[in-house]
Amino acid sequence: MSHPPICNYEGSDYQSSFWDQGGREYEDRVEAIALKRLLPKRGRLLLEVGAGAGRNTPRYVGFERIVLLDYSRTQLEQAQQRLGKSAKYIYVAADAYRLPFVDGLFDAATMIRVLHHMADPSKALKQVRSVLAPNAAFVLEFANKLNLKSILRFWLGRQGWSPFTPEPLEFAELNFDFHPRAVRIWLNGLDFKIERTLTVSHFRIGFLKRIVPTSVLVLCDSAIQWTGGLFQLTPSVFVRCRCGRPAGPAPGAGFFKCPECGQARLQETAEYLECSACKRRWGVRDGIHDFREPLER
Questions:
Q1: Does residue 9 lie within any of the structural domains?
Q2: Which of 38, 54, 148, 249 could form a disulfide with 253 if both were Cys (CB 3.0 to 4.6 A apart)?
Q3: What DSSP character marks residue 255?
Q4: Strands 132-143 and 106-111, how do they pair?
């Protein structure tokens, strides 16, 4: 596909309805544990792909600067309200399939609860790889097709699709589950070396969350996340990768690039960035750099 469709959370109250009021404390806390175990303790510049309203951003405390990237401007506005405007945070509205950054810029990146919205996941991962420096850390979470619930349902004849086949499963529009083997193939093909795998949300079952205290579920989940290195049967899987050979120029060649033509020489004003090659202008408003569509001239 030339340009994959985009899952756009524009105008959504996702943070409030799903996380704050949706009974997701257990999932949020076990994901925080996984992130703490996988992320480097400190770093210079981190890219958060699909940052949304900034739920995870405060967890990246060891990084000097953080780029919050999301396609939805309203999600970034909500993140600004939570985190504030400061030199530490750079807010960017952009398409994950066309990242507006020079190659080799970041020394770390995260992509949490984002890949499952990607109709072309390998293309999105290739974009992330291109903007990472050599030996950069990449923490990826993906929705696991091969989870225990799906396996049991398949064996009992209660679902028609097999969790054992490698192709993605689109269970709702632009919502995909992936087989762990397929994800490993994509990552290895981009010269990512997988260092560690954690399985997360072992107890994501409605009746368990209703009858067992959240703190107990979190403690149990935390104790067995390490089993992800042996097998992956949970609905959520986290992996930490390292970049191999350089994908492109080292940091120092600039910061933003034109997502349309790839030119890195952008002339900056208070209201827009203009590409010196194709002359497209990309808006800057209220502290948010918008690379989704160029401004009309």
A1: no
A2: 249
A3: S
A4: parallel
- Per DSSP, the residues of 96-115 read TTS--B-TT-EEEEEE-S-G
78 shares a domain with 225? yes
Cα-based angle 1, 163, 214 (whole degrees, multiple of 5): 105
Report if residue 7 sits inside a domain: no
What is the C-alpha R_g of the chain? 19
256, two tokens: 């933003």
Same domain, 123 and 160: yes
In total, how many domains does the chain have? 2
175 and 266 both lie in a single domain: no
CB 83 within 8 Å of CB 102: no
Does 43 map to a domain? yes
Could you list the residue range(s) of the whole structural domain that residue 198 is in? 14-252
Strand segments, DSSP code E, in 13-98 are 43-49, 63-70, 89-93
Same domain, 268 and 160: no
Amino acid at 116: H
User: What secondary structure letter does DSSP report for 98?
Assistant: S
Give backbone dihedrals phi and psi of 54, rounded to 5 degrees, phi first: 85, 30
One-letter amino acid at 42 equals: R
In tens, the pLDDT along 40-62 reads 999 999 999 999 999 999 999 99
Spatial CA neighbour of 246 closest among 95, 130, 145: 130
d(CA 2, CA 195) in angstroms, rounded, equals: 32
Given the structure tokens 């996340």, which residue do they identify? 225
The distance of Cα 115 from the centroid of its chain, to the nearest Å, equals: 6
The model's pLDDT over 215-273, given as tens digits with 9 standing for 90+, comes to 999 999 999 999 999 999 999 999 999 997 655 555 456 899 999 999 888 999 999 99
